[in-house]
Structures are given as C-alpha cells and as structure tokens.
Amino acid sequence: MTAPTTTAHDSWSELQTTALLGTDRRPLPAPAGPPALAAAAGAVDRADPATALLDLAALATVRRRAGALPLPAPALPAPAEDDPRPEVPEAAARRLGFLLGGRGPDTSLANLTELLPQWLAAARAHGYRPPPVHLPALLDTARARSELRPDVVALAGPLGRWLAERNPDWRFVGRTAGAALPVDPTEVTAEHTSEHAGGGTAAGEQIWQEGLFAERVTHLTRLRRRDPAAGLDLLRSTWATERAEDRLLFLDALQDGLSGADEEFLEAALGDRSKNVRATAAELLSTLPGSALAARMAERARACVRPLDGVLAVDPPTECDTAMQRDGIPPKSPTGRGQRSWWLGEIVAAAPLSLWTDATGLTPGQLLALPAREGGEADGTDWSAELREAWARAAVRQRDESWARALLGPAPRTGGADRSAGAPAKLLAVLPAAERATWTAAFVRTHGLGDAFQLLGACATPWTPPLSTAVVAALERAAGSGAYPWSHSGVLGMTERALAPAAAPAVEALAADAAPETAWSDTFTRLAETLRLRAAMLAELVP
Amino acid sequence: MHEPTDKPGPYGDRPSVRPARMSVARPSVVGMEERWSNEHVLSLAPDQASLKAAGKLSAPAPWTGAGWGGGALWGECRGSGRTPYRPCVDLSGPAYQCTCPSRKFPCKHVLGLLLLWSAGSAAVAADAEQPDWVDAWLTKRRQGAEQRAVRQQERREAGTDDAAARRRAGQRALRVAAGAQELRLRLADGVRHGLADHAAASGGWEEVAARMVDAQAPGLAARARELAHAPQEGLLEEYALLHLLAGAYGRVDELPAPLAATVRTRVGFSTGAEEVLAGPTVRDRWHVLGSRDTADERLTTRRIWLRGAKTGRPALLLSFGSPGRAPEVALPTGRVLEAELAFHPGARPLRAVLGTRYGEPEAAPAGPPAGVRPAEAVAGYGEAVADDPWLDAWPAVLAEVVPVLGPEGWQLTDGHSAVPLRRGALPEQALWRLAALSAGHPVTLFGEYGHAGFAPVTAWTADGPAIGLGQ
Lengths: 543, 471
What we know:
The complex is a heterodimer. Chain A is an all-alpha fold.
C-alpha cells in the first residue's frame, strides 16, 4: 500500500514470481536488498527451498510493513464555502437522523415519509443549515424522492453543492430550480447567485448552450426570478432553434416575473408552429390585463355580452375566425361541447374582468345575480351557467380576489343548494389563507368530508384551529355513521400532514372513545400519534 | 483484514467467559444519580426493531408508578394484557429485568422507560421510594452477585494446584504443536507447487482449517480459512505470516515471555477475563475514543477503544452479545471514565479488561483529542509491527487531516504527507459523511492505521462533538 524502496520492491517481486511458479520449477532468488535485509536473508537455511522461500517472504513482509513510508501529500481541494446560517438545534438534528432512517426511536414508516417533508420545509423556513453529517443521507433521499429536492438543495446550501461536485449521484443539485438560498427571491443578490451553477454569465451561458434540458430549465427559471429581462433575452437568443416540446416548457418558465415587457415576445409566439406553444402564449397574455391580446378579447367579449336593463344580453360568436384562432382559441371544443358556447367561454375567460365592472358600475356579486339570456330576450337561451364558468376561469387566471369571492359565494350553510361555478378549489386558492380556511371549514360543517378533498388541499398547512376542529368533528360524524375509515383515506392522509397540533387532545379523545380494536380506533390512535410527533418535531425546530 | 485475536474462536473468548463484574460489589458512588444521555440509552438497544418499539413507549401515556431512586429505575407499562409489565433497571450494573415474555434484552419496555427517563420526563418521579417488587429484585440480584464472587474465589484457590488441569493443558500444547507442524508442511507444499495453483487448491484450506480446529488451535484455523478467500496479490504475505506464526509456536518456549504470549494468543490460546484481572492493573482516566459493533449471525462484537489521559496508553475492550442481546459494556464515545484496566499479556498489549470503575463516565474536555501527523501514525504502526509481526493495524489519532478523493480512492493528508483510507473500512455513505464533516477543512480522526491503510472510527471537527462514523 505504501511505497517501498525500489530495490526492496524488486526483491519482493522476485520472491512473488518464484512463489507463483513454485520452488520446484524456479530457483530461490539470491539474497538482495539493503545490507541488513541481505544479511538476514543470507542467514536463512536454504536446505528446503519451499521453507526458505516462506522464511524470506516473512522477512520481507515484516520489513515492508515496519519500514513503510507515508504517501506524498495530494493537492488539497478548495474547501466548501462557509455557510452563515445557524445549524439546526441539537434535538432537531437528532430527529432528522431518525427521519432519514438512521438509528433511533420512532414510529411507523408511513408517518416518517409524511414527516420528513415537513421537517425540511420548517427547517428551511427558519433559515437553518442541516448538520453536515446528515447531508449525504439527505442528498441520497432527495435523489430518490424528487419532490423533496427543492427543499433539500436549498437547505444543503454551499456544502451540498460542494459535495455534489464530487459525487455524480448528486448531480441533481445543480439542476434543481427553486433552490436558491433565500426563500424570498427579491433577496437574491448577484453576488451570491454567481457562485452556483448558472449564476455567472459565462457559466450560465455554457449551461444554456450545452446543458441538459433540466439544467437549462433550472437556469432559465433562476435567471428569470432574478432578472426577468435577462431571462427573456436568453430565451429569445435560441428560441428559433429549440424543439417544440422544449419551447413549451421554456415558455412556462416565463410565468415567473411575467410583465408587459414580455408581451411582444408572447405576441410573436401566437404565430408559433406548435399549437400547444400558441395556446400557452395566449394563456400567459390573458393574465396580463393590459396586453393587446386582453384588449382584443375585451373587444370580442363586449360584442358577445351586453348589459341591458337588469339583464345580460348574450350573443355568442357564430364562427371562430382566423384572428380568434391566432389569439389561442381552438376552433373545436376538445370535449365536444356546443361550438358557440365553447367560443363564448374562451373569450370571456381571456378578457380582463375589470371590463364588466367598469362597463356597468356593478360589483361582481351584482353581475353574477343578473340573468343572462340570448339576445336579452326573456325566453332566450339561458347562458348564465356558461358565463359563470368563464368568469371563474378568468378569476383564477387573473388572481382576482373580489371575483373569486363573489363566485364562491358566502360559506355554504346547511341546506344551501347553491354550489359554486367552476372548480371551487381553484377559486379558493385565489383568496387569502385565513379566508380559505374559514370558507372550507363552513363547507366541511355543511357537506362533510365527501367532496372536501380538493378544498382541503387548497388550504394552507397547518390548518387553522377552526378548520381542524371542523375536520375532526366531521371525522367523528363519519365514524358514528358507520362509514369505514378507508373511504376517507385521502382526507385522512392529508389530515396527518395538516391538522393543527392543537387538535391533538380532541383526536386523542376520539381514539379513547372509539370502540377498542376497531378500524376507527386504530385510525384515531395513529392520527393522534402523528400529531404528537409532529408537534414535538416542530417545537424542536423553533429557535 | 482484522485481528484474529479479536475474533472469538471455538475455544476462544466466547461470551461464556464474561468479564468479571467488579463493579457489583463496590459501594455506591457519588454521581450515580445522574440521568443517562439519550445516546447512551440508544447504544443499549439490541437491534433497530427494539428501538422502534421502544420509541412508542417513550411517551408518558402508557406508564404508571414510574420512579427513580436508590440506583434503580422502574415503572409499570400498560400493554394489551390485563396486568401491566414491570420493567426495572439496576443503574449501577447496569442490569435489566422485565416481566414481559420478550427474548430481546433489554426489552422494549426497559428501553422505553430509559428513554422517557433520559429525556427528563416528569412522569418518572425522582427520589422515589422503591416498591417492594423492585426492592426484592435488587436484593436477590446483589446476593447472587456476592455468591458468584465467592464461588469464583473458591475456584481460583482450588484451581491453581490442579494436577488434572495441568495434564489437560499439556495435552493441548502437544496437539497444537502437531497442528502447527502440519500447517507448516501444507504451506511449504503450496509454494513448492506454486501459488498459481492456489485457486484450485483453495477448497483444501477449509479442510486444513477444520484440522486446526481439531488440533485446538482456533487462531491458526481462522487464518487458514482466510487463505481460501485471500486475493492472489496478497497471498504470499499471508502464507509467509502464517508460516512465521506456526514456526514461532514450534519454539514458543524459547521466545521472550511477552512475544511468547503474543504467539500463544494468536495461535488460539485464550486468557480468561478473571485471570487477566488477577494480574496487574493500570488505573487512569480513560478517554473513550471510539466504539464499533460488528455482527454476524451468531454474535455481536463491540469494540471500544480507550486512551489513558495520564499514561497515553491505548486500550481495546471487547464485549459480545448473542443475537437479540446488546453487548454488555457500553461506554459512550467522547466521555472519560476513571477505572482500572487489566491488559492481556503480549508483546504489544492492547486488549484489556475493565476492572474497578471509579464513578460514571464523565464529559471529556471540549475539542478534539491530541493526535499525530500521518507520518507519525505510519511510524507508530511500524514500531508496533516490529514487536508483533502479525499486527494488522494499531490505534492512532490523526490530528488535522483533510480527506481527499483522488483517482486511487480517499487519502488523508496534513499537507506534508498522506495515508490512504483502508478500502472497505467504511461504507460508501459513511465516507461521504466524513467528507461532509470536513468540507475540505482539517478534521481530527481516531481509527486504526495499518499496512492496508487507515480505518476511521470517530471524527472531530474543530469545534464539534465526537461523531462516530461507522454505523
């Protein structure tokens, strides 16, 4: 292993060759090497060559081991950059070890897979750096579970990048978007983005020209967050030569920092060879209320829907002309709906919502209350459902709170028949977190958990105490009604992730009240256990 | 690459020969009423499944009447059955007892209770009065220990003069000598016909190993068995060292006493812990530099490396656990224990038996322990090999070295010279843990340096605590 002197090495290889071939076939080498070794070798009894060979080899082996020298020093690599963030508290670090499957006490594996993402998100939000000793396991876990990568890469910080440069298994670190150190993109300064892959112009240019697709998307997304104009310029520089599928995804990256400055490029993309690229460009433009596309759509919308006295007179288009098609309206409904209703929906969904309130002086709620009939005639076709649906899509696209609120309506009451238009979960996502939770809690109280899955998914975690209480009460009702827990498995899984720790006593009480050895008692016991663990875990992360 | 003496052979230091528990009879010591650290409790678990199960019991919920006092810890744990289980720990032993039927030892109830206690939970009453059942168990246990000590003393007094035992020892010496002689012939035949044929003949070494077992030379048997699996490039070295050992046993009576003891140990004669403890002991403040468990299907072996703060002497404690049972001795890395050690005889004494302890393991001074440069570690092993040619590695603390990954694998360097990391010494992920700890900066490493490279066990960064790298 360590370097022996040349002569010693030669005499050793002589011995080895003789041993390989056998002393029957090859004579013993003469004593060689430095004087002391040669003298000792000379003293060996050579009567039996085989025994003598073993004696000589023993001498040489012990000499080599006892006299070995260290290796010359290799070049030292540049150390990892310092990480100014504080290390996670000791108890939280130990918990991370358990969550990563290390040695330690914990409960079932199902809970661990739920808890690790929460640990990562909380640690990242607190601005910690993880203990270095856990980084390899953390990076290995993120390699297997790509949904963890943004948090893991952000947490791992400069040391994670340093390690990834040395271990090809962790190459994803260089390709993971959304992992720039600070959570707030406005805090990203040119100084410290230049240090990681793609930040600096030269390195960035190289990644853009030669990188893998994922690396390029990451680079574009990061650049776009920091400097939208530079991102657009970069995309423009190679746009004409990109493949259609790639153009589509690069276009998606423009969502970050989208503004009027992008309009010209997007307008040009409306003439793209690829239908999907055209549609995406149109969709992006429709979220810019001041864009020319929005103005054209407003024009078309005004032609279709006119406010009359207390009525909305609707005249859906009768054809989809080339100008409409260029603006991203497909001539045929993908679901085979009536053509006119499809075109109407596309136009209204892409028109600025301010159009309606400005034109009528009415609030969104008042507008929604107006009857909408073909031609404004009392016996004309009722278009209100279509209109509502299109407004809902517009409210989601334009992230318009007042329209979303009006479309959702007041939080549902028992017996209330009015169900919201569009996808309530999407509308809900437009509202502030507290309002979302209140609305959903009312929904759960009224309708139970059956249809609540997506709504609950739209709520911020951990759930607010009132929402948690509503969900626990609904679970109690479900258990009391003889339903099976597995018919609520989706909601239960979400509950393990999202229920407020304050709900733990209520769940423990449910567990205690449930008939022993039943599925519900197991379910509540497990849920209570998860809450306890999660509360302990989050408490450990508090600075 | 490992020390044959470290491995209990068929006649070797099986767990049946347990280290004498000198601590049992000692008076209670100040500082005993200190809670154990979480790490200490974790190190007691016989396996991962027990820890998982214990985790569920480490909350206050299932416990009633848990208390702590008079050197004992106890509680009642509600299970699915009607009567609660009653785990109890003698903290001075430590020794465990539980009414559950588990064959794991310590069981999940004991571990859960220890975890709850080490976390400082109010559910375990401090300075509590021992219930009758705890008191009864402790009394019985201490009486048993006294009786054992008396019996041991009687055996020692009776055994020294036993003619039958001497005759048996003489017979064994003859058998081993015949085995060693036969082994020399087999080795010489090997090189006479050429080691190129070794692969074809490797099946024969299993048979030779079996004959060495018959000859009551388990050390020779283990080395012979390894020959069957040795790679060709290292084969001549292995042949030569085994030849040297067998030859040395042939004239063991002419060798200086320490070397003779080394040869006897390596051939497979073992010295019982009690016998070792009967000899001279070294009292020091022993710094726990590292610990590692290795397990096969029969046995878990725990190595704990120590270094004397006053004497600077390295020491290795071995303890064993059968499957489902944790090895008996648990000393957390990074702590210091004032105790007497008795060393097994040899030309390079390292293996030791733990004698009287003076107090519990205490926190070591902050910061990494003192260490040497790579070049000094190489020289240190060289000196050790000159004393004991069969030594594969010798403990060393490398100060301020940077792990560097090169085309030949990992090396450790202080900027002046370097030593390679022994291949296979650490699993892949542990190597990267070491790299992450260092981040390109110097770290202090405890491990074993030998002809195959350095095998790290524990790492210290400039300001951090000791971190075990193996598991």
